[in-house]
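Project standup — Tuesday

K.O.: blocked on the structure for the chain from last sprint. Re-posting the sequence here as requested.
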Amino acid sequence: MQHSLSIYNSLSRQKEIFEPLHPPFAGMYVCGPTVYSNAHLGHARPAITFDLLFRYLTHLGYKVRYVRNITDVGHLENDADEGEDKIEKTARLQNLEPMEVVQNYMNTFHKNMDQLNTLKPSIEPRASGHIIEQQEFIRQLLDKGYAYEVNGSVYFDVEKYNAKYRYGKLSGRILEDLMANTRALEGQQEKRNPVDFALWKKATPEHLMRWPSEWSEGYPGWHLECSAMSVKYLGEVFDIHGGGMDLQFPHHECEIAQSTAALGKESVRYWVHNNMITINGQKMARSLGNFITLDQIFSGDHPLLEQAFSPMTVRFFILQAHYRSTLDFSNEALTAAGKGYQKLMKAVETLNNLKPSASSTVNVEELSQRCSESMNDDLNTPILISHLFDGVRIINSVNDGTEKIDAKGIESLRKIFNDFVFQILGLRDETKDSKIDDLADDLMKIIIDLRQDARTKKDFGTSDKIRDELKKAGVVLKDMKDGVKWEKE
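H.V.: unblocked you, prediction finished:
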């Protein structure tokens, strides 16, 4: 199978023709969220970027195993080897069990991903479910001399690794500069070098999440999980590793080091990184206090928002920029994206109602080729969208009678819009969703009235059956002072 898709490889810093190891199979591992807070707009960008890549590789005919991890242990504050676990900190503040925090935020994350119409990954492993694999990875590194144990904690020896390989090749860092600019912090004296990173940490008495090991009762380091899980599900060498650009260093740099040291070879053929969403030129992040959750965007409930923005408006907003460029949030940009998205959906509706002519004055095949070329050019969605709006102009011109299109042309145009708008860009027509919601409201009103009529007649058997059958279907009825409300479970 030969395809001309070129992907910018963050390691080589150039576009490379994507040639998977075992065509037509492609393995893709993406660093998913640390689930200690609700997903915000910054989380939406990698989710949509790698959903786009997943969709396009599938469209080209590859069988893709898409692995997206969930970090639920080991990610300490400020991405360091000391301090409080981010999930434990949230659990303490909310008086919850750590895994309760994880489950709550995973539920919200998955709901938001469904709203954004991202496809579910093939596998979604959790760090806490792969402790054995991570411990085995540590043993390999100890056996090969690239790790050392001190007081129950195990650290990766960066200087020894750098003597044979090169630490910093992904991010462009130089070890000597890092060592000169990194000071030893309190609690790090047990490391041989301040740049060494934790593979296993001995748990302090107050630490909640801990597992037994031959070194201590403790927990794995943040970087280790991705190496262990990617190898487990994709093999020692796989095609694509993705994530946000902020993960290049230290997270992905440490991944490269520990995987290469353990396996004797690099695991990843292509490193792909999306750029950040900014607000007033600053990265949007929970740690900076300038984030807007996706729930807030969809409801409009945030001081920085002038209105609510729909999930497809947000998706279109993100796709309007190339994944490697920064994208600055503003109400004006989201409003403009919403208008562009509506214009595209209106054109699709018009296209479905076009009547063919005996001849055609438009070149649809050339449009199809340009759309494919833009996606093959490092997923260039801004150019793709500009070509799709060329298609919108064709549709409107035919509808106005200034151009003609035959039946074959209409069929080709419909295929272009189905393939690129819905299947590849992953947009959906929210106007249809709202019509379905309106129909559901009307039907539920009829059902609720029937149940209320049964209760008035003291036919509680029928009333209870209606309630129970709805519950089986995932609908819960709630008796309120102002009537009966319904909601999906």
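K.O.: great, moving the ticket to review. The first strand starts at residue 6 and ends at 9. The radius of gyration is 26 Å.
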